C-alpha cells in the first residue's frame, strides 16, 4: 500500500501488482515444502473486490500436521507481505471432514498452485 501526504490529508492507494507479485512469490515458496499440497487465494482479493484496508485470505492445504491449527499458522506466514494476510493452513483430513472455511475457499477461491486435483476435496472446487 502506498501513502502520499498532501498537507494534512494522507491518501493511500492499493498497489495491486505488488500484492499479486507477493502472492505468487509466497505460493512458489510454499510449493517448495513437501507437506504443502495447494495454495488458494479466496475472499475479496480473489473476487477482484479488494480495496484500501482489505486483507488477503489464503488457504494452505497440508498433507498432514501434528500441530494444532493455531500453532501451524506461523510456520507458513512470510516475514513480510504488502497487506494484511490471513493464512489458514488446513490438513487434507480437516478439509475432507467438511471444515467450512476451507470448503468455501475451495468453492470460491483462485488456485495459485496445486499438486493435487482439488475437485477431490470439494464437489464444487475450481
From TrEMBL:
Keywords annotated in UniProt: Transferase
Extract the Pfam families matched here: NTP_transf_2 (PF01909)
Q: What is the superkingdom listed in this entry's lineage?
A: Bacteria
Matching entries from InterPro entries are given as: NT_sf (IPR043519), Polymerase_NTP_transf_dom (IPR002934)
Instruction: Please provide, alphabetically and separated by semicolons, the GO molecular function terms listed in this UniProt record.
Output: nucleotidyltransferase activity
User: Per the database record, which ranges form the Polymerase nucleotidyl transferase domain?
Assistant: 24-67
The reply on keyword Transferase is yes
Please give the PANTHER family that the UniProt record associates with this protein.
NUCLEOTIDYLTRANSFERASE, POLYMERASE NUCLEOTIDYL TRANSFERASE DOMAIN-CONTAINING PROTEIN
**Name of the featured protein:** Nucleotidyltransferase domain-containing protein
Q: Tell me which species this is from.
A: Rhodothermus profundi
Amino acid at each position: 500500500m502506498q501513502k502520499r501526504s498532501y498537507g494534512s490529508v494522507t491518501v493511500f492507494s492499493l498497489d495491486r501488482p505488488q500484492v499479486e507479485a507477493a502472492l505468487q512469490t509466497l505460493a512458489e515458496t510454499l510449493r517448495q515444502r513437501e507437506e504443502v499440497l495447494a495454495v488458494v487465494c479466496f475472499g475479496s482479493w480473489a473476487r477482484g473486490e479488494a480495496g484500501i484496508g482489505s486483507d488477503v485470505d489464503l488457504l494452505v492445504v497440508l498433507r498432514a500436521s501434528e500441530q494444532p491449527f493455531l500453532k501451524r499458522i506461523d510456520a507458513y506466514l512470510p516475514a513480510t507481505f504488502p497487506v494484511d494476510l490471513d493464512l489458514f493452513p488446513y490438513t487434507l483430513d480437516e478439509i475432507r471432514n467438511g471444515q467450512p472455511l476451507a470448503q468455501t475457499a475451495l468453492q470460491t477461491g483462485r488456485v495459485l498452485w496445486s499438486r493435487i486435483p482439488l475437485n477431490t476435496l470439494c464437489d464444487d472446487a475450481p
